[in-house]
Specification:
- The chain is mostly helical.
- The protein has 3 helices and 2 strands, in the order βααβα.
- A two-stranded parallel sheet has the order 1-2.
- The protein is globular, with a radius of gyration of 14 Å.
Length: 76
């Protein structure tokens, strides 16, 4: 499992900035985003042997490179 993590305020701003029609979670606001992040990070700590956390606040190409590298490593 790959968890792409970032500050909830940044993630919410990015999601809202896309102005898409699919905003179920975004419409619940920042507090829910913070709660969900804490829960996902707790799971990543508890199951560190199978959940990898990727810093999603970086450039999209760097995030994608990490996703690719971790995926390839898991498949070999």
């Amino acid at each position: 499992t790959l968890l792409i993590d970032m500050d909830p305020e940044t993630g919410l701003a990015r999601a809202k900035g896309r102005q898409g029609t699919e905003e179920r979670f975004e419409d619940f606001g920042l507090e829910l985003q913070q709660t969900m992040r804490a829960g996902f990070l707790a799971l990543a700590t508890e199951f560190g042997d199978r959940i990898r956390v990727i810093d999603g606040a970086r450039d999209m190409d760097l995030v994608a490179a990490d996703v690719l590298a971790l995926t390839q490593a898991a498949l070999t």
